[in-house]
């Protein structure tokens, strides 16, 4: 079975590249937009109705909430679908990657940052809603601002003055209210090693054979084919494998190799970025996430080696299933950072994407971040190279900066005695406190480490958070007997009740600690975002001050230059269209007098050498050359004919060599339509 490496041709970012710098209006024959006031589920909204005429006519609506100016960005970006620059699947992935799973929308304060109403009971309200400024940024990014600018420029206080939309006001739907801040749900985890005797390396491939294994391979092949057509649930997978599960032990059929590379079904599911299959294989005990292939590469490495998970927008979900692989090494002692840096020259975009998501995952657990910095960031492969060595080799400033922020050791030498500090690119980035690009992730790392260090100052270690336990009340059955037996039973009941109350109190404290820990990590992201925005504002202020200084300098120089101009030229203006008159020559020609004797006149020659006359002569020469070129093009019909042939060929789909034969029939058809 060959590894299915590729799904789809366009990543989210390639679509952005496709749209950047383009003007969608060039593909639109015409459009009209109107504003109305409307109410859905008792929510006041301003509705933009957009009528587009491209190769088809379509009517779209985009809604903006009056109460907080949140805009339905799903409706906004639906314009791109109608213009065929997005598909529905690409829009879904874009919203997942760039909004729903983007820490920029997590919050710079306690105010809401986005609203996920994709499953709202009211169809008109369905979609992802974002703040006004974010919606404007997206409209500008994708060059559709001109189409929807009426929605952004209208004042929400004009709601009552706008014409009402032609619709029925529906009754209020329960549960529809203000958006809430994005809540990051991080799965509670067990230890990183998962009882791995080979820790910190992955488990080696498992040798399996026999009739039951062959049956299992056939069933797994069926599962992958079915999942390609429709996503299977855990129960679907269980039902398919039930005949095999019922007659074999879990150890007998687990981690079966499916190809000569030693890859398991979990490797293939991770490559395909199928969250359902990954979940099913792990929960049913078919695969372990810590099992490596023949190279020792974990399923997480299979995920980051392709762009499928980035395209599908589900890498964060996969990471909650494959998280133990973050701390595991392959046979060459390469960590996940080694693999991410190794593909920077070919897949820089996906490497950067996956790295950011891993960092965001780590900061939600201080112990994760602490262990990652301690065990992974400076880990050396069999040649002694750290991830920083590889990033320096690839000359990727962003990744070098990120590793430096995580605490990478620039003095750590490989087996050849080469350390990152030997390279100028590292020295420059160490000295330069400014971020390279995408500085928000650097600010996030700094803030998370700052919070982590503060916790370590207070408490020298990072204890594991205890999970609440289930408490049960035990009732001691009272049996007839003497008084001593009754006293003993009473003591037992008292101890049981005391233990239950104690566990209840402990569970309450555990829940409080979990809540406080969650608040702390929310504060980490909020603080990082605030710092990043503050830094950007300071940078803009510095730029503004520089511009003011430059304007002041230019104004001063203009004033000085004006003072230095001769007085007789101060009010003189030259008109390029005005005839240039040489007085001695002009007067003689006006009186029909001969001018030949003026050829050697010094006064006349000095006037002929003036810069203004030279500029006019050059301008006349350029105009004359341009006219001659246009004349030559009009006289020579070959180039013009070839252009018309090419246009006809493109419009009709006929080969350019056959256009001459098509022209007569085409002319008759056009004349017949007149």
TrEMBL record:
Keywords: ANK repeat, Coiled coil, Repeat. One of its GO terms (molecular function) is transcription coactivator activity. This is Transcription factor. It comes from Spathaspora passalidarum (strain NRRL Y-27907 / 11-Y1). ANK repeats lie at residues 261-293, 383-415. The lineage of its organism: Eukaryota, Fungi, Dikarya, Ascomycota, Saccharomycotina. It comes from the Eukaryota. Residues 38-163 form the HTH APSES-type domain. Residues 537-564 form a coiled coil. SUPFAM superfamilies: Ankyrin repeat (SSF48403), DNA-binding domain of Mlu1-box binding protein MBP1 (SSF54616). The keyword Transferase does not apply. GO terms for cellular component: MBF transcription complex; SBF transcription complex. SMART domains: ANK (SM00248), KilA-N (SM01252).
